Amino acid sequence: RVSQSGCLAGLPQEKLEMRQLIDTSDVQFRDALQLRDNCARVVAGAHHSGWNLGVLSINWCRSLIDAVLIHPIEIMIQDQAVSAGAPHFDVWCNGLDADGKITLDVPGAISKRECIAKVRRDEGFVVYIGDSSTDLLALLEADIGILIGGSQSASGMAELWDIQLLPLSQRPQSCEQRCNTVWTTEDWNEIEDMLQHACPPSHVAAPDASCKESSLRRPGIEV
Question: Strand 164-167 to strand 220-222: parallel, antiparallel, or no bridges (unpaired)?
């Protein structure tokens, strides 16, 4: 129905045009698109440490992701004079053309899980950070799944599915993996600390037989 209505027609297809639209919009709209505190800094630091970066979304189109998330991180990396080079983000999202037609490339939670499963097969060790109930399956699929922001709907779904939600501060620094467990936090600084102690792929223990198969090569972070 959204595609048929044309209500999204004319939205910018390029990063800088989308950024300009956001910057000239009302305060309420701009506030709704603010990154969480320290998000850009922590992701920029992860890039500097050699992590591969990716964005997986069912709600945002590519130009919005580029303008709101990737652009601030690029600026942060430039400001830090990081020598790791410009960041490359793998991006999986739904498409939006100039006429407002939506292409459902990532239609829901199952698609998110399948995407993370493919990244693990192709790339190796994956940390996935999500904030909604549609992220739960992908969080379980990742080697380390982190739920940020205290979503009540996600907590409710986790209880229904008997998924353990444990504070990230309680995660052991060992390479042991926990089945059916999602770690929780409100703070990107806590995620930064975890990334500094996360095991390199060659040292991550294979999961228990009841968990997913492990094929670990290069580390990656998906948000």
Answer: unpaired
In whole angstroms, how far apart are CA 105 and each of 62, 78, 91?
12, 32, 11
Give the whole-angstrom CA distance, residue 62 versus residue 86.
18
Do residues 127 and 141 touch, judged by C-beta distance below 8 A? no
DSSP output for 149-189: S--HHHHHHHHHTT-EEEEGGGS-SSS---TTEEEEES-HH
Q: CA separation (Å) from 124 to 42, 164, 172, 201, 214?
A: 21, 24, 20, 7, 8
* Spatial separation of the C-alpha atoms in residues 25 and 21, rounded to whole Å: 6
Which has more pLDDT, 185 or 124?
A: 185
Q: d(Cα 176, Cα 217) in Å, to the nearest integer?
A: 17
Give the residue carrying structure tokens 């920029």. Answer: 44
Name the residue among 77, 68, 78 with its Cα closest to residue 49.
Answer: 77
Predicted TM-score (pTM) of the model is: 0.86
Which amino acid does the sequence have at 86? A
pLDDT tens-digit map of 139-195: 999 999 999 998 999 999 999 999 999 999 999 876 566 789 999 999 999 999 999
Q: What is the pLDDT of residues 15-46, one digit of tens each?
A: 999 999 999 999 998 999 999 999 999 999 88
Q: Are the C-beta atoms of residues 206 and 214 closer than 8 Å to each other?
A: yes
Contacts of 97 (CB under 8 A, 6+ apart): 13, 103
